[in-house]
Amino acid sequence: MSAAITEPLAATGLDPAVREKLLKVGSANVANVLLKRGFRNVMMLGVAPLSADQPQLVGPAYTLRFIPAREDLDSMANYGRGDNKHRRAIEECPAGSVLVIDAGGSLAASSMGDMMAARLKYRGVSGVVTDGGYRDAAAIRGTGLPCYQVRNAPPATPIALHPVALDEPVGCAGVAVYPGDVIVGDSDGVVVIPWHLATEVADEALDAVEYEEFAARHIANGRSIFGLFPATPQSRAEYDEWVAAGRPEVES
User: Fold this and answer.
1) What is annotated about its quaternary structure and interactions (predicted)?
2) Closest residue by Cα to residue 18 from 212, 189, 206, 178
3) What residues contact residue 58 under an 8 Å CB cut-off, 6+ apart?
4) pLDDT tens sequence across 53-81
């Protein structure tokens, strides 16, 4: 286990070396590493990338929580106020972070639109994840900002959603997300790494990806998965020799 981190990563920022490693691994690899540590509920099931070709998403979580709207509080006039937490989230989410929006699973109104996505992209935010949906999906894709949702939700936000909390623990797609937890998103979906485990999980997940490259080469040449995948002490020793030899082509 790594040494305890005294501050969440949202406050300290994600180490560039850790970010670089997580950009090379898949959400499934990360979930497997966390499973070894007893974490079973880390994948945001039902949340999918807005665009099939969007970049990998990595960054510490900055959170926004919605509750159902109420007619005396939620109007377009109130939505335009400077203290509206939805709009504040767009201006206060730190560069490099991932805005995680807890919409309570509601698809009755939009968690975000294209103007907000464009602003986040300009400010250097890494991406957005919601267990609700977005409006202006095509325009959001055009910003290049990696975004994940359940499905499109075109109605205006105040119709069904009221923002109540920023940078506090939330539940998104059934997964607990604490400020600073590290979010990794790819074509398979989104996984949440407890912030104090980010460094060791990144190391182990990258090691797993690199071993899978070795295993895939052998499988392509007809080798059985038995004794190869998952790794055994013998196949790991074989892998280490292969790495030491400069990763040569695997002979059939």
Assistant:
1) Homotrimer.
2) 206
3) 14, 19, 22, 23, 98, 126, 182, 183, 184, 185
4) 999 999 999 999 999 999 999 988 888 88
pLDDT in tens, 189-222: 999 999 999 999 999 999 999 999 999 999 999 9
E-strand ranges in 174-248 read 175-177, 182-186, 189-193
- Count of beta carbons in the 10 Å neighbourhood of residue 39: 16
What does DSSP say about strands 175-177 and 189-193: parallel, antiparallel, or unpaired? Answer: unpaired
User: What pLDDT, in 10s, does the model give residues 2-60?
Assistant: 444 445 554 458 999 999 999 999 999 999 999 999 999 999 999 999 999 999 999 99
Distances (CA, A) of 138 to 106, 107, 147: 20, 17, 12
Q: Which neighbouring-strand residues pair with 135?
A: none
- What confidence score (pLDDT) does residue 80 get? 82
Q: What distance in Å separates the CA atoms of residue 14 and residue 181, rounded to the nearest whole number?
A: 10
Nearest to 86 by CA among 108, 71, 101, 73: 101
Of 240, 188, 233, nearest to 211 by C-alpha is 240
- Phi-psi category of residue 106: left, alpha or beta, with phi > 0 → left and psi -120 to 50 → alpha: beta
